[in-house]
Amino acid sequence: MIGVLIPVHNEEQLLSLCLQTVQSASQHAALNGEAVLVLAVLDSCTDGSATIAESFGVSTLALTVRNVGLARAAGARMLLEQGARWIACTDADSTVAEDWLVQQLALGADAVCGTVTPGHWHAEIALEAQIRYQQGYQNRDGHRHIHGANLGISATAYLRAGGFPPLACHEDVTLVQHLELCGARIAWSCGPQVTTSTRLDSRAVGGFGDYLRSLISA
Q1: Would you give the DSSP letter of residue 103?
Q2: Backbone phi and psi for residue 95, each to the nearest 5 degrees, phi listed first
Q3: CA torsion sign, 8 to 11 to 16 to 21?
Q4: Which side of the chain, N or C, has fewer Cβ within a 10 Å radius?
Q5: What is the tens place of the pLDDT at every residue in 18-49?
Q6: For the chain, which residues make up each domain, given as ranges?
C-alpha cells in the first residue's frame, strides 16, 4: 500500500483542489491497482478543513499540537501502522500531477526529493522578486531542494532515519539530512511534479511563504 500524507492547518480555501489532484494521482493506471491511503492530518483546525476532507472520503487524524513536524510524524506513524510501504508527502496548499506517485516510485530510490512550481504569483510579489526566485531555483534533476510538498520515502528508510523530528519548521530538511547520514539512496528529481501556492501567510514560521516574503524585501 502507498500512503499519502498531508498536514492541514486551516486550509479550507485550498484543500479541495489539493485532494482532487491527489485522488487523481492515486487512481493512475500505472499503479496497477495498488491501494493508496490518503491521510489528512488536521492540526488545530478551526475552519471547515475537516468537513472538506470528510467530503472527499479520505482518512483523517485530528491533532492540537500546532507543529508540522509532530503532525507529519503522527500521520506517518498511522500510515505505517496501516501497512504503507511508501509515504508520499505533499501540502494542503499544493496540487500534484496525475503521475506524481508513479514518477516517485519509478525512480527506485529510498527517498525522492522533488521540485515545486509556483502557482499564480501573489499580487504582492513583484516581477523583480519573481525573477530572483527563478534565478535561485534549480528545477532540474540533480537539484538540492527539499520540500515537504514533494517528498517521498520508503517505509524502511523512514524508520531507519528516525522519522520526522518534532520541529515547527524544516522537519523535512532534517529528515533528509538523517536519510543521507543513514546512506539512503536519494533521488533529486524534477520528475514528480507539484505546484504550490505563493501565498505569503505561511502556515509555518520560516516556511515557503516567509521565503517568498524575503525575496520581496531583498
Answers
A1: H
A2: -125, 150
A3: negative
A4: C
A5: 999 999 999 999 999 999 999 999 999 999 99
A6: 2-216
Buried b (16+ CB within 10 A) or exposed e, 42-66: bbebeeebbebbeebebbbbebeee
C-alpha 131/C-alpha 1 separation (Å) is 41
Residue in 40, 26, 46 with CA at minimum distance from that of residue 74: 40
The CA distance from 197 to 100, in Å, is: 17
Q: Are 72 and 89 in contact (CB under 8 A)?
A: yes
Phi, then psi, of 39 in degrees rounded to 5 = -125, 120
Which residue has cell 528545477?
Answer: 139
- Confidence check: pLDDT of 218 > 80: no
d(CA 119, CA 123): 12
Task: List pLDDT tens digits, range 187-216.
Answer: 999 999 999 999 998 888 888 999 999 999
Which of helix, strand or coil describes residue 6?
A: strand
- Number of Cβ within 10 Å of residue 192's Cβ equals 27
CA separation for the pair 22, 104 (Å, rounded): 13
Strand partners, 61: 41
Give the pLDDT confidence of 149-187 residue by residue, as tens digits: 999 999 999 999 999 999 999 999 999 999 999 999 999
pTM of the predicted model as reported, rounded to 2 decimal places: 0.97
The CATH T-level fold of domain 2-216 is Spore Coat Polysaccharide Biosynthesis Protein SpsA; Chain A (3.90.550)
Cα 15 to Cα 54: distance, rounded to the nearest angstrom:
11
Give the bridge partners for 62, in sequence order: 42
